[in-house]
Amino acid sequence: MKRREVVKYISMAPLGGVGLTGLAAAQEGMPAGSDQKNFKGRDLLGELGVKVFINAAGTYTSMTASLMRPETLEAIRQTSQHFVMIDELQDKVGERIAALTHAEAAVVTSGAFAALTLGMAGILTGLDPAKAKALPRLEGTGMKSEVICQKGHAMGYNQALTNTGCRIVVVETEDDVRKAINERTAAMHFLNILEDQGQIKADRWVALANEYKIPATIDIAADVPPVSNLYRFNELGYAFVAISGGKAMRGPQSAGLLMGKKDVIAAARLSMFPRGETIGRGMKVNKEEIVGMWVAVEEFIRIDHAALAAKYQKSINMFDAVAKAAGAKTRVFTPTLGNVTPTIDITIDKSVFKKTADEIRHDLMHGGDPAVAVVGGANNLGMTAWCLKDGEDRIVAKRLKEVLEAAKA
Ligand SMILES: *Cc1c(COP(=O)(O)O)cnc(C)c1O
To answer: Which residues line ligand 1 (CB under 6 A)?
Structure first.
């Protein structure tokens, strides 16, 4: 066949080749010609032999973080059926999310990590595309190159910032900050979940930055609920705020939000998909994540968080009763800065258990059906309830009891 004929043949295939089934499939949202009947009932993860488990651990990236709500899935399905211009979609969704989060502007990114990189890129480049193209090379470009950060906040995720080419300058006291500020200072970065590890608190940090007209930036990746944290740092005047979409908000795990000042968000988008020749080109989010994230934020703001927290607390109390009955010491608490959800810490004491915490975690995950994932360190198990589906808490409690009792023998 000549090329023209091939094109014609392909374009006719949905109608001519597959007839009504193909048409129905096209309207239903499957690619025309796909055989849905054959597809239905397939257990894809089972076919792959990939282990599925009950998540009593938490919103861990390596465990795929969270399960999307039906509203988000429907948003994704609906959006997947249309072509749109990605920048127009980002503009419009950004306006909605900005209004919902009390930010001047917002954009959906591929996660909090990408939001940090892109936000910092925006601060460095401003609205100059030539500078965006130069990143991560800063030397000789006239761009600033230093980000000030408290010692207690200098951890792994700062890689997201240094990916832009900038370097981190570590400080401890307010006096250190004043001494560290110079003509190369691009921003002052804060890590909310470790607020208690630094001498300077989030409100003072932004005030200090404002005093020197330096943009203050903040990572609140895992720090909702409370819903008010969606607003608080925008209202405090942070230049940008980065948050994960796929943790407690239950948006797509491959999404996050970059919120903040209008000029910073606009500048960040210069380094973003769909523009090539930028450090952010690979941090792609398509229409499904963009609209899915918007709907996830709406739902997250709408739902009854007090009722949810009470429900999770009940599940944790159930695990607590089981662990105590097995003779373990426990601590039940709700973290205040991030991962704000009822949590239990179960001590695996040698005087009570013959197995180590690692072995007990292994038994929960691999020693029975259904598999249960928990976290923890050398001497403890850590569990939360916010990733459990309805009724799974009883199953987890039963498995925990079996495994802990067996570990004593
Ligand atoms: C999870 C997390 C990130 C990364 O977020 P992603 O949405 O997975 O990119 C960054 N910073 C902190 C503190 C986090 O907890």
So the answer is: 61, 111-113, 157, 193, 219, 221-222, 244, 256
Confidence band for 41, pLDDT divided at 50, 70 and 90:
confident
Cα of 225 vs centre of ligand 1, distance in Å, is 15
In this predicted structure, what is the pLDDT of residue 18? Answer: 39
| Mean pLDDT, range 288-296, rounded to an integer | 98
pTM of the model: 0.91
- Mean confidence (pLDDT) of the chain: 93
Tell me the CA–centroid distance for residue 92 and ligand 1, in Å: 25
Distance from residue 219's CA to the centre of ligand 1 (Å):
8
Q: Which atom of ligand 1 is nearest to the CA of 160?
A: 10
Atom of ligand 1 nearest to the CA of 116: 10
Long-range contacts for 128-136 (Cβ within 8 Å, ≥24 apart)? 128/270, 129/270, 129/275, 132/270, 132/271, 132/275, 132/277, 132/278, 133/277, 133/278, 135/164, 135/165, 135/271, 135/278, 135/279, 136/163, 136/164, 136/165, 136/279
Cα(113) to centroid(ligand 1), Å: 6
Q: State in Å: Cα 112 to ligand 1 middle.
A: 5
Residue nearest to atom 13 of ligand 1 (CA): 221
Q: Does the structure show a pLDDT above 70 at 14?
A: no
